[in-house]
Automatic annotation (TrEMBL):
Pfam families: FAD-oxidase_C, FAD_binding_4. PANTHER family: GLYCOLATE OXIDASE SUBUNIT GLCD. It comes from the Bacteria. Residues 31-210 form the FAD-binding PCMH-type domain. This is Glycolate oxidase. It comes from Oryzihumus leptocrescens.
Length: 453
């Protein structure tokens, strides 16, 4: 690849071991290519410089935050500059009157929440990776998380952006104000664009009034179908839960193997349900407990103080490391209409049996967004292939059920082969035309999302 400008020399990662850590994200199979550079931008000028160089030389750019992505969107590619913006990590402003925060793209999600909390406000989107993923990465993937069932996803909280385009032009999209209908929603276009249009260098996020500390209900079920029926019942509550998470027996066993998080053994599924409604949490969790019992829960426990509630959620937050410890896996991220959730669960179990693959079934049940994991043993011939086929089978099922190939992790490189199937030719052609408008030379994360050639 062309030599980077000398003005960036202090920003280029030269230590081969350190550099290698910037080549991969958390997606399965991510590996460093032979030839790539990593630039750790320290300010807007660095980003502009890289984008100018990239356009002039036709060098691909891979924008990057904390590398917690699960779809392969932030992985280095041959001949590319990885443009890491983690160091742009300042919360510039929290404005309680307007209800906004302005932050650099490298601000960690949990730190933005903390800054909002200090002003008595709340930034809701909370991916399970909240402690280490960046707000820029959240914007680029339209990240979801545990509280989306009540609060929605990242897109619902982004009012405006500063973006550096290929060639180095800096643009602002959106607004700071509560309302605004001036022109097309370019902010919405960049949210979820996975680094294929430009580099996000500043985020103006909406904040909402702080909720009450959540209270929790834990319900166990003798079969997964009753659990999904309970999810459907809870979704129809007037005061929707602030969290509605599903774990199957295999998931519970994996979590309990790490530490005793208080989940009972021997049940087929558990639902964790929370309310954070100011002044009404105790009333809500009693109501949810009654709904869960009517839906056929075997046991229902109400954690009626904040400490117990946190303990139960700690078990849910331990899920990812627990599943990681279990072995190699493909992580699904399909999302279906809530009314089809039971069919998705049943199909996942059938696929696992047919392909002879071990599966765990868990995720954001309240959104119809599950993360089934298909495990494999690289030492066993054909094991990985069978897991991969099972992964693909479930994607097809999600589409047949009227769902999507990705609820929150993004398309990246792992799911680009299914994108045309979901979008159809007319929408795909328009999306490509929009991409070409912002990135005529096709240097932004090429081959990711739309372009699977
Ligand atoms: C344990 C674990 C739990 C997770 N739980 C959730 C969850 O509950 N919900 C959820 O939605 N996700 C979850 N994720 C996935 C991941 O954390 C999110 O996708 C997150 O938004 C990625 O942020 P990041 O800073 O790590 O971005 P990266 O992984 O560095 O990048 C992700 C994508 O965004 C692009 N990008 C990053 N920064 C910018 C920028 N400034 N400008 C333009 N493009 C950019 C990259 O090119 C790439 O395509 C989880 C991941 C892990 C490892």
């Amino acid at each position: 690849m062309a030599a980077l400008p000398s003005s960036l020399s202090g920003r280029v990662v030269t230590d081969p071991d350190v550099k290698a850590t910037y080549a991969v994200d958390e997606s399965l199979g991510a590996a460093a290519p032979a030839d790539y550079e990593v630039v750790r931008a320290r300010d807007l000028a660095d980003v502009v410089e890289v984008m100018r160089f990239a356009q002039q030389t036709g060098t691909p750019v891979v924008p990057q935050g904390a590398r917690s992505g699960l779809a392969g969107g932030g992985v280095a590619m041959q001949g590319a500059v990885v443009l890491n913006v983690e160091a742009l990590d300042t919360v510039h402003d929290v404005d309680p009157l307007e209800g906004v925060a302005v932050a650099g793209p490298g601000v960690i999600n949990a730190d933005l929440k903390q800054a909002a909390a200090q002003a008595g406000l709340f930034y809701p989107p909370d991916p399970a990776s909240s402690a280490f993923c960046t707000i820029g990465g959240n914007v680029a993937t339209n990240a979801g998380g545990l509280c989306c069932v009540k609060y929605g996803v990242t897109a619902d909280y982004i009012r405006g952006l500063q973006v550096v385009l290929p060639g180095g032009e800096v643009i602002r999209t959106g607004r700071r104000t509560a309302k605004g209908v001036a022109g097309l929603d370019l902010t919405g276009l960049f949210v979820g664009s996975e680094g294929t249009l430009g580099v996000v260098t500043e985020v103006t996020a909406k904040l909402v009034p702080a909720p009450d500390p959540a209270l929790t209900v834990l319900a166990t079920f003798d079969d997964l179908e009753r659990a999904s029926a309970a999810i459907i019942a809870l979704r129809q509550e007037r005061h929707r839960p602030s969290l509605l998470e599903l774990m199957d027996a295999a998931t519970i066993t994996a979590v309990q193997a790490v530490a005793d998080y208080g989940f009972p053994q021997g049940c087929a599924a558990a639902l964790i349900v929370q309310s954070d409604r100011p002044g009404h949490t105790a009333e809500d969790v009693q109501r949810y407990a009654a709904v869960l019992e009517s839906a056929g829960a075997a046991e229902v426990a109400v954690a009626d103080d904040a400490q117990e509630a946190d303990a139960l959620l700690a078990g849910r937050r331990a899920l990812n490391p627990a599943l990681e410890a279990k072995g190699h896996r493909f992580i699904e991220d399909v999302c279906v209409p809530i009314g089809r959730l039971t069919e998705l669960i049943r199909a996942g179990q059938d696929i696992a049996a047919k392909r002879e693959v071990e599966i765990t079934m868990s995720g954001h049940g309240g959104d119809g967004n599950l993360h089934p994991c298909f495990f494999f043993d690289p030492a066993v011939e054909g094991s990985r292939e069978r897991a991969e086929e099972a992964f693909g089978d479930l994607v097809s099922v999600a589409l047949e059920l009227g769902g999507t190939i990705t609820g929150e992790h993004g398309v990246g490189s792992l799911k680009s082969r299914w994108l045309a199937q979901e979008l159809g030719p007319a929408e795909l052609a328009r999306q490509r035309a929009v991409k070409a408008l912002f990135d005529p030379a096709g240097i932004m994360n090429p081959g990711r999302v739309y372009w699977s050639s």
